[in-house]
Protein 1
Amino acid sequence: MKDNELEIIYSDDNPAIEKDDSKCIQCGYCVRACRDEVTVLKMYDINQTREPVCIHCGQCANLCPTEAVHEKFDYLKLKKLLSKKDFVKVISIAPAVRVAIGEAFSLGEENYEGKIVAGLKRLGFNYVFDVTFGADLTIMEEAMELVNRIKNNERLPMFTSCCPAWVRYAEIFYPEFLSNLSSCKSPITMQSSMIKTYFAEQEQLDVRKILNVVVAPCTAKKAEVKREEVNRACEYFKVSGISDTDYVITTRELISLFRDCDIDFKTLPEEKFSSPLGKGSSAGLIFGKTGGVMEAALRTAYYFLNGKDLDRDAILFQDVRGTDGVREASVNLGNVTLQVAVINGMKNAVRVLDKIKKGEVFYHFVEVMSCSFGCVGGGGQPKLTLLEMKSRKNKRLESMEKEDSHSKIRLCHQNPEIKEIYEKFLNEPNSEIAEELLHTTFVDRSYLLGGGHHE
Ligand code: SF4
Ligand code: SF4
């Protein structure tokens, strides 16, 4: 891709992003996002790939000032389905949505989860769940996996795998690291599998009659939920033709849905999530910001290693906090000291990955989030001007940290609904049924580069 090119070409089969050429004003913002921030555009040569390469992060769409580049819209299809009576309608909200939606209604970056729940119930959803539950579940599985890999000294460093844009980046550009990725599915795909198996059984619902929707800050989730290997309800119930997640809509699409349906967000009351997948710890909540997955996993790994919880004043891992592009820390977890790194934004990955590859650095555990600031800065979040971008994303992040500091449940394994699902259904982290429903596999996609590589 040459420097002076002002637009990105999108494949027709891109599952997350599309472009309406009639709205393009050739401003070049999409190129700037992909080339300078995400850096994917720098990583391949279109003469070799013949097709554009995309990790579905949506940063180009987020920066587009005219809606020419946008996420593949699903909210209009969803709106039509909401009037149908023959489905049980279930929706779950990802952590980062609640601290950004207020911006669209001149309310700022406080946590507006209560209003979102109220709005979704008015739209006709029967159950409104919290993906923070799915994040807690991810940590139960991932912290156990980390502890086991450290004990066995195998496949280190372990990389987080909850960001589908990072997973696709690794599949295309660094397939040599695929066995290092945590085998855990992401919070959203874990949540959806639990809705279409555990919840369906608990409520004695016909799984074919559940419409399951997720609201995410992320465009890459639209692609992730279509991956065959994350869809498990079909196999579990031996039925065909169902997906664990029927639709993912972005925060922006939810805002459009509320506006289209005349929901006055500002005046909505605060309502509570439904049960049994509606309670999350604040460790699960901070998944939505850079360093949050690392911190949540360390808190629970400490418990798995030592059989007791961290003291309240030791719960905050200050060294992995902040917003620097790469943060490294030595973390004491009782008898074990872990070397960890947090990569904040895709453009910061190359230098760390190449150093690991060359053996110049060693880490036990590495968090990678494609969007800068983590999911609070996701491609499906409300758009920001270049001037306000940094301060607004920081406010979203601070809002999550504030929630965590006030929370009564700051450890994923202390979430009562998590304890219940292991007692009733999953047995224990990394059990046979947990492996079947909550873990996944990855695919070497370096063939997409057509033989070209950035090196
Ligand atoms: S979605 Fe991300 S990777 Fe794909 S073109 Fe846009 S910025 Fe680039
Ligand atoms: S950082 Fe979060 S919002 Fe961004 S691509 Fe990854 S999962 Fe999606």
Protein 2
Amino acid sequence: MKYLVIGSGGREHCLAWRLLDDGSAAEVYVAPGNGGIEDRFRLDVNISNFPALEHACIDKNIDVVVVGPEAPLVDGVVDYLTEKKIPAFGPTKKAAMLEGSKLFAKQIMEKYGVPTAGHRDFTGQDSVLRHLKTVKEFPIVIKLDGLAAGKGVCVAANPDEALEFVLSSAKEDGKIFLEDYIFGEEASVLGISDGDHVETFIAAQDHKRAYDGDTGPNTGGMGAYAPAPIIDAAKLRRVRDEVLIPTVRGMKAEGIPFKGILYAGVILQGDDIKVLEFNARFGDPETQVLLPLMKNRLGDIIGASINGTLSRHSLKFERRHAITVVMASGGYPGDYPKGKPVKGLGDVSDRILVFHAGTKTENGAIVTNGGRVLNITAAADTLEEARERVYGEIDVITFEGSFYRKDIAHRALKRPMSSK
Ligand SMILES: Nc1ncnc2c1ncn2[C@@H]1O[C@H](COP(=O)(O)OP(=O)(O)O)[C@@H](O)[C@H]1O
Ligand SMILES: [Mg+2]
């Protein structure tokens, strides 16, 4: 089988690696890919240009397209390719609204009894500003509707922060909603669906803040690990039964069956599990710790999601632990330089997986090309061991100005029974 993976991050390098590694694929092309992808398998295609993607598929005889990021899904890339008889993995444009519109997701959750934080919606700056004057309890969460690349949510600690966010970010006639703040620990639970059936991945936890101790600005994610012990087997079943299954059933009942990855960002407060958001695709960097532990062939479950035969499969995971640490460019998530030579990539042992994110090749050498540059990854019998492997070798790889968090998985390692 020949696959085309759409995207350019660590997630996409990991998807391509896994499709080849488990024998799903004879060849994997990536558009546009990054420096981790061999030159001859990188396709220099603008991923928002669907006819160009279709052309690339025909040119390379692609059997299946796997879409990494949310933007092309929300723009309808799966609808477009399916129409052209090219099998594509992921939700249709309408189904991807579970990620593309937080308000739509909220309405689906409320209609089908999926636990989520209470909310109140508004149209336009003025109405929300008027309401904010009456709010007495902080923090409060303010969310914009629509894809915002991580910039559409504000957890406002006081009225001034709320005001500033609304004035600077909310469009005059845009949809905006306030959500009850929930104090708790977050985790990511991914499901895969074929529109009817859902299979659940083990839980993962990412680390959004730039610096150790969960301080500093928000980022796309500085590292992740799996399984996350805060979601034990019983809680994982509850997320499946109370969140993923009712959402997939609800979408089907609405006439918009959801195929692809349904990623629930949940928050746990005691025994309470609530959904903060849905994503309609693999997480980055969660994918980098889930796929190394998955026993199934990735191509099999992707095919089953597309063909509607997922109930014949059951997702299985090794009883091991995986961790990934992001090496980032100095300055990220603010401004950072590009084009810094990356050294030492050939010197790490085979106990480490290095997924490329913001890299490219220049005159045959790897240079930095983004904020999140590399994902240094390991799987081992215990979380401690996986962590030692990563941190034991990470400094072998160097580029000017690089930084990484030294405390990935700290929440699990604080728990006494974490590695069992
Ligand atoms: N209701 C809530 N209570 C507490 N924290 C929240 C709530 N909603 C969002 N957050 C915080 O804001 C972050 C971003 O919100 P999320 O809904 O995941 O949007 P996005 O990932 O699109 O920015 C969450 O990871 C969480 O830390
Ligand atoms: Mg989120």
